[in-house]
């Protein structure tokens, strides 16, 4: 499966099959949340949250690809990511784009 953020893929003609998306809502356990809260005092990267967001993006992308494959797509163009805080310490990640089939 080819994933691109552009509207085209050089050298490829395709037809759009429709929008596809994948999402997940992730949170860290309360113990990790407390330890990450201490970073507010000293500064620095919140590594547990960085890891959580990387895992969430990977899962959302996987779900988007699965939806595209179910349509018979060979690629997804215009891939975008969006995130939103659902509650303290929990975030939703959505991956979306246009599923396409090569001509």
From TrEMBL:
InterPro entries in the record: UPF0145_dom_sf, UPF0145_YbjQ-like
Highest taxon above the source species: Bacteria
Signal peptide location: none
Gene3D superfamilies noted in UniProt: Hypothetical protein apc22750. Chain B
Membership in a protein family: Belongs to the UPF0145 family.
HAMAP family recorded: UPF0145 (MF_00338)
Name of the protein in question: UPF0145 protein ANACAC_00028
Species of origin: Anaerostipes caccae (strain DSM 14662 / CCUG 47493 / JCM 13470 / NCIMB 13811 / L1-92)
């Amino acid at each position: 499966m080819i994933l691109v953020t552009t509207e085209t893929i050089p050298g490829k003609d395709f037809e759009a099959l429709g929008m596809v998306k994948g999402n997940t809502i992730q949170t860290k356990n309360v113990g990790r949340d407390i330890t990450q809260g201490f970073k507010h005092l000293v500064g620095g990267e919140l590594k547990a949250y960085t890891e959580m967001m990387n895992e969430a993006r990977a899962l959302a992308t996987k779900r988007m690809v699965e939806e595209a494959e179910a349509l018979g797509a060979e690629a997804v163009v215009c891939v975008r990511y969006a995130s939103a805080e659902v509650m303290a310490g929990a975030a939703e990640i959505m991956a979306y784009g246009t599923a396409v089939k090569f001509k």
